[in-house]
Give the backbone structure.
Amino acid sequence: MNSEFSLSEDIIYLNHAAVAPWPARTARAVEAFARENVRYGAAHYPRWLEVESSLRKRMAKLINSPSTADIAILKSTSEALSVVAHGIDWRPGDNLVIFAQEFPSNRLVWEALKPRGVEVRLIDLQADQHPEQRMIAACDARTRLVSVSSVQYASGFRTDLEPIGAHCRQRGILYCIDAIQSLGAIPFDVQHYRADFVMADGHKWMLGPEGCALFYSREEARDRLTLHQHGWRMVARPGDYDDTSWSLSPTATRFECGSPNMLGIHALDASLSLLLEIGIDRVHGALMERSDYLLELFERHAQRIRVLSSCEQRRRSGIVTFRLEGGEPQDSVYRRLMSAGVVCASRGGGVRFSPHFYTPLSDLDRAVEKLLSI
């Protein structure tokens, strides 16, 4: 994999939970697309559409979607969440259930429904060891939707998605999963989880660009969303520009109202080709090896480093968040690490490290050495 990643020797990149570096093949795909535009314009657009079709197939494989017809390519996780939130026919007195520690994208979009009389029920992840059961217990006859992140952005806490999905399917509650901190890092099975909607932008663990996102909608759930964006591409016959009796696409492309982000599509298709070529199980195994290694390093210095992420195996992900003890503010620790070339993030009251499967273990050694020198 060394040929795919050539990060500057001046940095230690531990920020894949934010924005990831591109593999070499992704850069080549973008360069080739740019050269083609310069020389030929859109003369080869039919071939571009083949790349778009390839990306849908890769996305479907990544999440074990029953069909590529369930896959839309949108701009972002936030856009996909908004499509769901504002597509449901809410009634005053309805409620939805989320975790209190969600990233703003998976919180603000639901809180924006409060003026319509929708109650947002917040479940504290940290209250006990069984937050999924408390989420299930919070549902009642007026619960229309449950929305969760598969992995929490700040702590890396991995949600047990299956029991929530089983409960929602049994009760006719829509189930929405923000999978941006899973896809590309952890095996994901949309059918096993019984999800109605799944979304994830490609710029984190999928190693792709910003502005190109996966949006899965289960066929039976799609028709429950009213569209608020319309354009030439979301119809059943998008190439028939003279059709005055148009109808919605029966597939998830109904959520793609306008022209596709062909540049982003070429990039993300290349990035996913690498991950699927290696195999997500292998990627996950290598990533967990690195998380284990980080935790072992932190354990050796437990008097100075306090791990904030769960160390329970089933709750772990590619994110390890910690605090450096000793009185210095964590934002200051973060800034000093960044100045020392350790690319990381300040999240959840601590510092967040997020390596990927290809990160050299020696980089983790160096990062901890720099941390301890603060």
In short: The two ends are 32 Å apart (CA to CA). The chain has a mean pLDDT of 96.
